[in-house]
Amino acid sequence: MGELIIALLGYIAIMAFITFWSKLRTRTGDPIDYFIASRGLSGFISAMTYAATTYSAFMMVGLVGLTYATGVGALAFELAYLVATVAILATFGVKVWELSREKGYVTPTQLLREKYGSYWTTVFVVFMTAVALIPYSAVQMVGPATILTGISRGSVDYNTALTIIVVVVLLTTVTAGLRSVAWTDAVQGAVMLSSATALVLWLLLKTPPEVTEPLGRLDLLNPANSFWTPQTFSAYTTPWIFFAITNPQVFQRLYLPKDRKAYTKMALYFSIFGLLYTIITVSIGLLARGLREVGAIDLRVDIRSRADWNRVTPQLLTYTHSALAVLVVISIISAATSTINSIILTLSSMISYDTPVPEKLKLSVGKVFIVLFTFVIYVFAITTPAFVVDLAVASSAILLPLLPLYLFSVYGYGSKFSYTATAVTCLPLSLYLTTARGLILWIPKEVVVVSLSFAVFALAHLVDRYLRRARK
Amino acid sequence: MFFGDAVKYLDLALLVYVVLSLILPYMLAGDRGLTTFTVYVLLSVAAVATAALRLKRWSRVG
Question: How many A×B Cβ pairs under 8 Å?
Fold first, then answer.
């Protein structure tokens, strides 16, 4: 376990070095530089921070386990997400980038506030976004901490593992804001991709050619098997295909490239990263299952228990060389911290810019909130109350009512009334629907939330127009 | 004029790829080989190439 301790110390040292190097390039006291690096990032760094923010620890833990248990449908779900994100970046994203330059936006919710003109509705949207994303960040901490504790066979205890993640998050976020977050994201993204590649190559070397036979026999190469019914597939894909619009930490990344060429490079490099990372992680899950079916490895995972699916990667690592296991563990911690620090920085920028904070205090308040948010996430991660897990699972679905709001604000439709009506009714309804237990609907809850949000927005817009005309 | 039309077709192609990615599992139902894997990878590559073309045109205009 000496290797793991050395690797962890090395990881923290590299993160600290990059952070202080970024600090030298930060304009002290300028909130715009702190929160969005003065909209001046290169295409490559923008792409890497976009990828590291989007792809969390879910990929190497959740997606590997999901593929292992349910087969190639997981690839269809994850690549549907990628295709939709690529389309969003090439169409909607360019409009957002142009607007951010023209109007000087710093936060995603600033766009809503200025387009629709409702201050207090935006404060409510910021609050609901934090409700959805803080528990999601807490669960991001829990997974890697559990794996780290397991791999070290208890020599790194759970609280120490959580503390390591908190230290890296606070270090990279508070010190130099977006510049340190983006640069550390770039390095962490490289670690994520290279470790996943090493693991899949190791699996390929162990895999006999006849491995597709048991996978086919078990219906795991069928994208429409008993697990991937149309209901399940739409429930999984609906929040994810709109993730780039509804999740503020991803949306804010559209503001970062310094010019059109940098934006284009960001979109292309991210797409290549996403495609490779998805194929690799899904292949790890399929190959692990194939090897288990041919008896080459013995993974003790109960397919019937969903919670057990997350044990595939940690168990797989017990078969690899210890250096590879350590690299993969560091990559899982990297994936988690690069997602959490982006969420915290974006939420703190929304608090600074979209709630009543005086201009002079924006930066100080933002930094105080970074520490406060990190502390809240740490407490949630230590205690992990059941509602936190429910909220984390549902986080992307909770934010779905923001889809028509962002979409129509960019294309110039809607009014203050339609904005307020949709936010005030659909966000709480979405929170209720996506976290309620025992509620059975024929249509997936996610599809209901999206449809209702568009319907409420359109109806409120029409009523508003009618009332305005009647008044004239 | 040509640029505007080309962008419209590229946007349409991207929309088609998104719709295809959502219905393909049921078009490929019953696969016991690597067809789904291959088709999804090809679809993603096509989407990335179309987006690249769309963005190259946009970045040149600016």
Answer: 121
